[in-house]
User: Which sequence fits this backbone?
């Protein structure tokens, strides 16, 4: 088979896994990595799943690898923080079947809480890093990454960025090559990491680093394109495309194997060019090592550490020629909760009761922005509960009477569950609201253990969040429909007043879930409208003010959740059967 | 042929991804090298979104940058204004004459600019259409993006039949007819 297709970077990675004979894939959704699993599931030869978090995903892949098959774990950059515990040790152990960990960085912060550079973590963990520069390579390099993993007995980090993951470029497809399962043999000195064994393995890891650095100088993953030798670039990944766009004739060393660096190749390339630029997004990982080799180069003094690169950025920094118009100074359009989102009514109630919230990661992080303005803090997955607990231990139970912790269902099952365990164990009196919309929303609706369905579409018994909470000896558990604002208000008032730990489960499915519709549409009865503005308070984008102060509803946006209608005391917003 | 640069801008949820897939489809069929870049994740929740499409003999970067767009397709007026400086000197702006207030405007913290299209016409070659109204008239408010695409199609070198065929391939089977109708309305409007 030799078909050409235009493919999303993430779809190409999935295809690469298929062609490379991967048998097991485990992941937790996170932009910009989610579509890898959503595409892997199309290949029936691969067992694929959503794990509750990235550590579990990686540990599952490790188990598959040690048993003797090619395995893959994928996650966004911050997911690797969760998975770093297994990462650092599997680096010592190595693999049996090849093990590739796809980690998607987010330069430019399109959908993340920070801009960390996975290459730094990989260096700390002594794990090789492979970086593709378009969809074709995203597919092809997966195969090379598995070969690297098995040849050098190491896990491999396959690092992408948002731009690569979410760009579509041409890919030439190939057939799947089945890889024979490797035999499992018991090998405690290699696979059981306790001090005596780990000491010996650490030495192996150090030698492996040297061996891979040497291998890198001849590997197909790295490519030298000699051209005009007055200017040379060492670059990687998507940045390579920007270099070619602006300097099609320059000499380029394009690194596909970025850790450990191929020092011999770099020295050789540097000696052939007059002026050497290091063009890498985020941290000066290559640059600092090149400088440490005693090679003069230009890098972060002219290229930024923050943000995404582009050809224009390169033009401006190197050629100093860029004649573009300035952007019009216009009002921004920040993301918002969708019309019909159940989180909106929960935040409306919390705002009305003047509560502060420790927040978490998901669509509901948008509860931090006006007009809802409820969330005071967002740190990482699962932090909301633990932080509320910490506040109470620091300043006493009175201090948190005006506070709640808010967390989504998927995030609760990811790491929130540990924090609730701590609250229950160590005597918290806080109030937790689990905003259960029956899906992993922000990343585009992935199933999890409480939805009753797996990534591969199998119907399974759903884990009951209620029972999980109950099993932790939480005495006060209130389930309430998120759109029932009276009941929700009552629950928040009562539970925050109580000197005991409480969990409110505010449930209602995500408005964008398939099959999720409301039975009515909302009609504005203009002569009943008293222009009080009450219906505008929740900040629904489907409802706006007319010039005369009355309101109008954009029928193409409104999905009839009825929140505005239940707030109108004058019956100016009537529910009409669809 | 020099590389052509197309941009689609709009509000998250308006369906910019579907339009970019139609564009990618038609350009690939014509044998060009095509690169597309999209926005997923948080911005899709009602934020400002932009999709880049580039095609030609050889394409490197997958994004279109300031001063480079041949055709800018805007699904909303304010977004047209926000990205207009991405246009080339002789670039064309196709704008859906519809207004979606961003949250700072809804809550009264900012104002929505007046006369956006008239002002853009002073600096750029602008074609506008109330595609949302046309789509409603056709019976499905969601097909407005193909009305806009129909208008933009006049500024790209593909035949009408090729467009209709690509739409057939890329939209859900039940909506082929109405999407093609929507496209043709925009296409005829441009004549």
Assistant:
């Amino acid at each position: 088979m030799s078909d050409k297709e235009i493919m999303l970077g993430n779809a190409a990675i999935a295809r690469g896994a298929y062609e490379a004979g991967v048998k097991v894939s485990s992941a937790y959704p996170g932009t910009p990595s989610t579509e890898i699993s959503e595409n892997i599931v199309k290949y029936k030869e691969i067992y694929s799943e959503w794990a509750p978090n990235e550590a579990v995903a990686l540990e599952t892949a490790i188990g598959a690898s040690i048993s003797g098959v090619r395995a893959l774990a994928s996650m966004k950059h911050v997911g690797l923080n969760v998975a770093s515990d297994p990462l650092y040790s599997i680096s010592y152990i190595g693999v049996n079947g090849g093990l590739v960990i796809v980690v998607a960085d987010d330069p430019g912060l399109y959908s993340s809480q920070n801009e960390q550079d996975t290459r730094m973590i990989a260096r700390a963990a002594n794990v090789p890093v492979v970086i593709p520069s378009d969809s074709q390579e995203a597919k092809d390099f997966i195969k090379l990454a598995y070969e690297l993993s098995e040849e050098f007995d190491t896990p491999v980090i396959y690092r992408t960025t948002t731009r690569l993951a979410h760009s579509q470029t041409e890919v030439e497809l190939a057939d799947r090559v089945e890889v024979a399962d490797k035999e499992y043999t018991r090998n405690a000195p290699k696979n059981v990491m306790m001090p005596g064994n780990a000491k010996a393995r650490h030495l192996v890891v150090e030698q492996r680093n040297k061996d891979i650095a040497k291998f890198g100088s001849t590997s197909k993953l790295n490519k030298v394109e000699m051209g005009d030798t007055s200017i040379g670039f060492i670059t990687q990944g998507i940045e390579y495309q920007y270099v070619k766009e602006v300097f099609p004739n320059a000499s380029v060393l394009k690194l596909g194997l970025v850790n450990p660096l191929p020092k011999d190749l770099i020295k050789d390339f540097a000696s052939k060019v007059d002026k050497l630029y290091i063009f890498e997004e985020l941290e000066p990982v290559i640059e600092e090592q090149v400088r440490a080799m005693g090679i003069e180069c230009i890098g972060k003094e002219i290229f930024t550490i923050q943000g995404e690169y582009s050809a224009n950025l390169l033009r401006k920094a190197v050629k100093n020629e860029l004649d573009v118009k300035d952007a019009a100074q216009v009002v921004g359009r920040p993301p918002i909760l969708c019309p019909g989102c159940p989180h909106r009514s929960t935040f409306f109630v919390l705002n009305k009761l003047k509560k502060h919230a420790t927040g978490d990661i998901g669509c509901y992080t948008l509860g931090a922005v006006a007009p809802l303005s409820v969330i005071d803090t967002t740190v990482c997955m699962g932090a909301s509960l633990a932080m509320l607990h910490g506040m109470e231990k620091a300043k006493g139970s009175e201090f948190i009477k005006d506070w709640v912790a808010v967390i989504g269902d998927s995030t609760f099952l990811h790491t929130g569950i540990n924090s609730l365990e701590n609250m229950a164990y160590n005597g918290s009196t806080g109030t937790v609201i689990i905003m259960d919309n029956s899906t992993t929303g922000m990343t585009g609706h992935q199933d999890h253990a409480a939805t009753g369905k797996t990534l591969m579409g199998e119907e399974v018994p759903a884990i009951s969040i209620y029972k999980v909470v109950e099993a932790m000896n939480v005495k006060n558990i209130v389930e309430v429909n998120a759109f029932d604002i009276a009941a929700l208000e009552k629950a928040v008032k009562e539970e925050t007043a109580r000197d005991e730990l409480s969990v409110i489960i505010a449930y209602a499915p995500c408005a964008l879930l398939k099959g999720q519709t409301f039975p009515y549409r909302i009609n504005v009865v203009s002569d009943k409208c008293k222009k009080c503005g009450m219906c505008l308070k929740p900040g629904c984008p489907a409802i706006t003010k007319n010039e005369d102060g009355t309101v109008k509803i954009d029928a193409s946006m409104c999905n009839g959740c009825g929140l505005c209608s239940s707030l109108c005391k004058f019956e100016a917003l009537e529910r009409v059967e669809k | 042929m020099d590389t052509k640069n197309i941009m689609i801008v709009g509000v998250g949820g308006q369906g910019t991804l579907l339009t970019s897939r139609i564009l990618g489809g038609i350009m690939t069929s014509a044998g060009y090298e095509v690169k597309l870049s999209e926005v997923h994740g948080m911005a899709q929740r009602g934020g400002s979104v932009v999709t880049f499409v580039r095609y030609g003999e050889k394409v490197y970067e997958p994004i279109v940058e300031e001063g480079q767009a041949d055709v800018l397709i805007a699904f909303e007026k304010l977004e047209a204004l926000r990205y207009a400086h991405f246009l080339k000197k002789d670039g064309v702006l196709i704008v859906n004459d519809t207004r979606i207030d961003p949250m700072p405007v809804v809550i009264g913290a900012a104002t929505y600019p007046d006369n956006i299209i008239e002002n853009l016409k002073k600096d750029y070659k602008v074609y506008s259409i109330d595609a949302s109204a046309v789509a409603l008239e056709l019976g499905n408010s969601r097909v407005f993006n193909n009305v806009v695409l129909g208008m933009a199609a006049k500024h790209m070198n593909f035949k009408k039949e090729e467009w209709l065929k690509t739409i057939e391939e890329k939209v859900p089977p039940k909506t082929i007819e109405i999407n093609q109708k929507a496209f043709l309305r925009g296409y005829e409007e441009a004549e």
